[in-house]
Every structure is written in C-alpha cells, then in structure tokens.
Design goal:
The chain has one helix and five strands, in the order ββαβββ. Helices cover 18% and strands 31% of the residues. By secondary structure, the chain is α+β, with helices and mostly antiparallel strands. The longest helix has 15 residues. A five-stranded mixed beta sheet has the order 2-1-5-3-4.
Length: 83
C-alpha cells in the first residue's frame, strides 16, 4: 500500500505534526484519523468533531471529503491545516 507523508498544523497551538497516510483513503477518512490523533495528543486544545476538515496550505482550499488522497497528486511533505 502506497503512503504519503503529510504535515498538519493545529491552528490553536501552531504545532505541526507529520502523518504517513495510505493513498487509498478518502480525505474524510484522513481528516478523521488526523483529528482523532490531535485530540489524543492535545486534549486541552482540540476536540475532534464531525465538521473537521483539511485545508491544503498551497491553495488555501478545503479539500473535497470524498476525494481519494492519491487522486490529489501531492508529494511527500504536503502541508495542511486542520480546520
């Protein structure tokens, strides 16, 4: 299974975290995994919610939740913000 290294910023803390994510997951699935991980890592600053989304830093666009990660054509180190 191919994976992509993504970098996700948590705005409340300014912290960035790296995640290896399978390319066959949808953006919704990636968002849920990242949100749960952030909630565990920083419970005082973040609570996972159903409306969490990933914004791609280079374009400033929130990604389509139904889109497979691999279809975005990103390279390792792609930067996102958890919103």
């Amino acid at each position: 299974m191919d994976k992509l290294l993504i970098n996700v910023k948590l705005p409340l803390t300014g912290e960035r975290h790296d995640f290896w994510v399978p390319l066959d997951l949808t953006i919704q699935q990636v968002t849920e995994l990242v949100a749960r991980a952030m909630e565990v890592a920083r419970p005082d600053f973040y609570r996972a919610t159903q409306d969490a989304a990933l914004m791609y830093v280079d374009t400033g666009e929130v990604q389509d939740p139904s889109m497979p990660l691999g279809a975005l054509g990103l390279e390792d180190g792609a930067r996102f913000v958890l919103v």
